[in-house]
Amino acid sequence: MGWLTLVAAGLVEIAWALSIRPTENFTRPVPTLLCLALCVGAVYLLSRAMTTVPVGTAYAVFTGIGAIGTITVGMAIGREPVTCGRIAALTLIVSGVVLARVTA
Asked: What share of the chain is helix, strand, coil (3-state, %, to 5)?
């Protein structure tokens, strides 16, 4: 169950990262409240996952999922550049997350 919670935490982290820009430097109240709620939700789920998944592994996987998802969504819908370097970086992050999971 800890691994499912960890994946959920990573997905909420992606939503949180994407929710930062609409706050316009935290000057818009509703987007800011949503951003803060997503941040708290991600950390809460991460803390729950850490009850069964080793702390170092959980944090590495959590940030990896967040990075992978945020970069991918940015390229898919945010019109961020798709370059060989970014694809290589994603490949390395995915490899690291998989290795962390397999060896945990």
From this structure: 85, 0, 15
Predicted TM-score (pTM) of this structure: 0.89
pLDDT band at 9 (very low <50, low <70, confident <90, very high): very high
Cα separation, 42 vs 6, whole angstroms: 9
DSSP per-residue letters across 41-68 = HHHHHHHHHTTTS-HHHHHHHHHHHHHH
Q: What is the arithmetic mean of pLDDT over 52-61?
A: 93
Domain ranges for the chain, please list them.
Answer: 2-103
DSSP per position, 7-21: HHHHHHHHHHHHHHG
Confirm if 34 and 24 have CB atoms less than 8 A apart: no
Is 101:60 a contact under the CB 8 Å cutoff?
Answer: no
Q: Is 104 helix (H, G, I), strand (E, B) or coil?
A: coil
Residues whose CB is less than 8 angstroms from the CB of residue 76 and which lie 6 or more positions away in sequence, other chains included: none
The gap from C-alpha 62 to its chain's centroid, in whole angstroms, comes to 6
